[in-house]
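Predicting holo structure, LGQLAAA5 bound.
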Amino acid sequence: MQQHIRIKICGITRPEDAVCAARFGADAVGLVFYHASKRRVLPPQAAEIVSALPPFVGTVGLFVNESAERIGDILAQVPLDVLQFHGDETPEFCRQFRRPYLKAVRVRHADDVCRALRDYADARGVLLDAHVAGEYGGTGQCFDWSLLPQDLAGNWILSGGLNPHNITAALAQTGAAAVDVSSGVEAAAGIKCPHKMADFIARCRQAHHRL
Ligand SMILES: O=C(O)c1ccccc1N[C@@H]1O[C@H](COP(=O)(O)O)[C@@H](O)[C@H]1O
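Done. Tokens:
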């Protein structure tokens, strides 16, 4: 049976954008707690966004080399379903919070993908992002999808530079069952564009149906 493609819209900073993403059919929304991000949210703002969501839409908190203490503090204030680690966090660090987690890997070589899937075997998913020197993510850049091994097994998520224009080709080439997008559906940093979100989600569903 054809699986339903999983779609996460990341970098949400406003309740209205979260509501819109959910209405268009996003499975999850992401909230960036990284202090240097243009899409950073503070815990009270994040809690307001989460409380605006309808049931059955997942909430993902994104962290980059954050202290365990600060993550614990945020978890006490914001009901996050999943943690997403985008820095140099070890598997031991990621699993200490006893929550499902995603580990991002910035792909430069085919080996990067296999190693991350092996090292973070208990992750809910390994998120494949572009490698841009000096940046941890959210760059709007794609990586070379041809680096992905054929019939890649495991729970992996395609990310990095996806947008309504390239998502059809991305799914046809990679066969991804889960995708994550941020800058490709924005009107400005941290402000989502409803048309781009709707277009992206519709094209995902259409393309995945054809696989
Ligand atoms: O969005 C950010 O500012 C960010 C900062 C540091 C690490 C990750 C970040 N964003 C995440 O990166 C991926 C890919 O984003 P894009 O679609 O290429 O813009 C996604 O999970 C973002 O939420």
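The helical segments are 15-24, 43-52, 68-77, 91-95, 110-119, 167-174, 194-210.
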